[in-house]
Every structure is written in C-alpha cells, then in structure tokens.
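Late entry, written up from scratch paper. The run itself happened at the end of the previous shift, but nothing got recorded in the book at the time, so transcribing now.
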Amino acid sequence: MKKELIEKWVRPEIRAINAYPVPDPGRLIKLDAMENPYTLPPELLEEWLHALRDVPLNRYPDAKARQLTDRLRATMDVPAGMDLLLGNGSDEIIQMLALALGGPGRTVLAPEPGFVMYRMIATFTGMDYVGVPLREKDFGLDRDAMLKAIDEHQPAIVYLAYPNNPTGNLFAEEDMVAIIRAAPGLVVVDEAYHAFAEQSFMGRLGQYDNLLVMRTVSKLGLAGLRLGFLAGPREWISELDKVRLPYNINVLTQASGEFALRHVAVLDEQTARIRQERDRLASTLGDIGGVTPYPSAANFILLRVAGDADAVFAGLQARGVLIKNLNRAGGALAGCLRVTIGTPEENNAFLTALRESLG
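Output as recorded:
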C-alpha cells in the first residue's frame, strides 16, 4: 500500500533520482568536500563565543540580516548600486532562482561536468535542464556549443561556475562574455571558490542587464554557517526576494558571519596557505606515474589515474583518506578523482596513500 501511495503522489522525476550523497567520514582524513581545513585561532574562538552569549535566541532574526549584509557588501567588494540576497548556502539561492524564473517549458542551462545542484534543483522545481559538454581535452567552455544551445533552448537561467566544480579551471573570459551577451535570461556566475581564484566577475555587475554573481562563505572557512549570497541590480534582487522564506538566515549565522568577516584577514591568510599547498600538491602529483592532475584555481585538484579509479579510491579509504570518486559519473570524468587541499600533514598522508594505492 505504501508503494502504491508513493507511486501515485510522488512525482516520477523525483522517484527517478537519488538524494544528494554525503558520506560519513568516520575517522578518515576528510578531503572530499572542499572545506577549509583550518579553524579560527583560539583567541578568536573565545571572542566569537563571547559574542554569541548576547544573541537573543527567543526572538526571530533580522529578516533582512542588515548588519551581515553590510559586512558582506564591504568584504566582498560589491559594486555601488548593487543589492544582495542572502541564502542558506548557495543551494537555497539556486532554489530561489528556479522558483522565481521557473515554469512549464522553462530551461536551466549549464556546462557539464558542473555543480550537480544546478540539475537537481531544476528537476525539483519542474524545470527542464540542458547540460552542454565541456571540451574533453582541457575542460574549457565549448563556446560554439554553448551559443548553439542558448539559441535553441532560450534558457531562463544559465549557470557559469568560475572556477568550475569539479574540474577546478577558470573558463576563458571572452567565452563567458559571449555567453552573457547571447543569453535571453539570467546568467549567474557562481564564484563559490573566488577566494582561491583571485579573479572575479563581481566588478562587471551593472555592465550587463542579465548578469548576477553568486558566492558562498563556505570555502572561505565558514562551511558550517551555511551562508551564501547573490549580488546584482536591485530590480532583479527585489523580485527574487519575493520567494525567499522569511527569516532564512538564523540569528547564530548572522552573528557568527558578521563576527568572522570582521576578522577576514585571518581567513585570507588561511586561503593563501591553501593556495600554496595547492601548487605544491599539483607539482608533486605531476611527478607520480599514472596520475594526471588538471590545473586548478580552486581549493581542490581534479586528477585522472591510468588504472582502475574505483580501486584507487578504495585503496585510499583503506589507508585512512577520503576523497571524491568522480569515476562513477562516467563520460569526461571517467578515471577521475578529486582531492580537496588539506593541511600539509593531510596532503602528505594523501600522497603516501595514493602512491601505495596505485601499486
């Protein structure tokens, strides 16, 4: 009876997909989720806890999160005249975009391989999804294919991750601009890894009527806060704000985010260390036989192994290291694994385990 009820009422496209998988790392070294491996220094942790003592848990949060919004505006170099929409991570913002621009026959378009939530949230909200393959050799944008798909499908939303997840590369600026100009609807440049890329489209806001920039503080070192934001012209932000659930940014996130961003220099120093480790790890991986690392402007490295990628992944787990197995996605990612940049000690443990797993 339960199965019959589920089949009757749950939409078939929802029944056909799996929930987003989040593995339990247990005691493994966790290098699978693009997290900053560093915590705040002890003296700042004490200050943060002191700041939380006065947070009024019995009251609803500021619905507009005004103090946090002002701090984000200043910290993230949001151009004058642009507005912000805050979300419970960038995932909620992607959902708000789909709710506001969705409808029968409306399409989301993005390069692939790309961030899986673009496709999943399009499915959740009843939108069509079109993935345009990246060039297999270097995972760059296939500009002609993208422009052709835009002309054919007239998408309501185009997502361009800059740098891209899971490949780690920055798309060519001229290709991005050509897509922004050709798109009939919104183009959202997803800059989740902006702290590591040191390149951005934020300064171009206002130059194009259909351009928005999305960011998150997760990769900066605040993943536990679940805080993302969308920047763009007030006219767009005010319409998207209509589908935001009231009080979506809780009081602890507002207070914690505002506190952490007042000390952004500490986070910037951590991201600089991660960039240095990324370069060291990429260089070392390039010297390991049977391993091809791809250039990365993020806090992770995509690598292709010559042997059985599933066996290498299992070997790493057996040796205490958890990374992301992308081989199961197939296509251009066949044979690929993705490792997050950890501390020097974690990265060395990964390299040792990788060499042993390769046999």
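The longest helix spans residues 264-286.
(Scratch paper discarded after transcription.)
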